[in-house]
Amino acid sequence: MPLAENDLDLLRRFIDGGDADAFAGLVRRHSGLGYHTCLRVLGERPRAEDATQETFHRLMRHPEKVNHSLAAWLHRVATRCSIDILRSDTARRKRELAYQQRIENRRKPAEPWASVSGQIDEALAKLNPAERELLVEHFLNGKTQAEIARANGV
């Protein structure tokens, strides 16, 4: 690979003949640009490395999209890849929070019950054991009145 070849010449060699050395030369020339762009947006090395890899993967898949400046194209794609990662992270966090909220809502009693449950428990405690058992079986254990009647021989 001659040193005088510009980016578009190397890219043309890759497009026309699948020249891996030409593509490797482009990666060597511009990996720093891609990585530092991603790092500025993402702020974390591993994520910036992933975004940089995705940037060059997109170049490999669609080299024909570069029409005048490879550096400008790579900068734009690296920025977009990084922003996509941030959006994905934000969406994931929202889904996780919504899921956690659903789990917490299942664990606690329904709001109307929660506001009076202490008073109901106190009232149940004041009943005689037979009445309390009937109410607990029906309202707390979910048995039907027919099931309770059968169990009590009524």
Explained architecture:
With 154 residues, this protein is mainly α. Helix content is 81%, strand content 0%. The chain contains seven helices and no strands. It has helices at 7-17, 20-42, 45-61, 70-107, 111-126, 129-140, 145-151. Helix 2 runs antiparallel to helix 3 (45-61). The longest helix has 38 residues, at 70-107. The chain is rod-shaped and about 95 Å long. The N and C termini lie far apart (97 Å). 15% of the residues are buried.
Characteristic terms for this protein:
single chain; 154 residues; mainly alpha; 81% helix; 0% strand
Give the overall pLDDT as a whole number: 88
Kindly name the structural category.
mainly alpha
Oligomer: single chain
Radius of gyration: 33 Å
The proportion of residues in beta strands is under 5%
Q: What is the distance, rounded to the nearest whole angstrom, between the alpha carbons of the first and last residues?
A: 97 Å
Assign a percent range to the helix content: over 70%
Task: Outline the low-pLDDT stretches.
Answer: none
User: Which H/E pattern describes the elements?
Assistant: HHHHHHH
Total number of β-strand segments? 0
The global form is: rod-shaped
Helix segment count? 7
Main sheet summary: none
Short description:
With 154 residues, the protein is mainly α.
What's the SSE blueprint?
Layout: H1 7-17, H2 20-42, H3 45-61, H4 70-107, H5 111-126, H6 129-140, H7 145-151
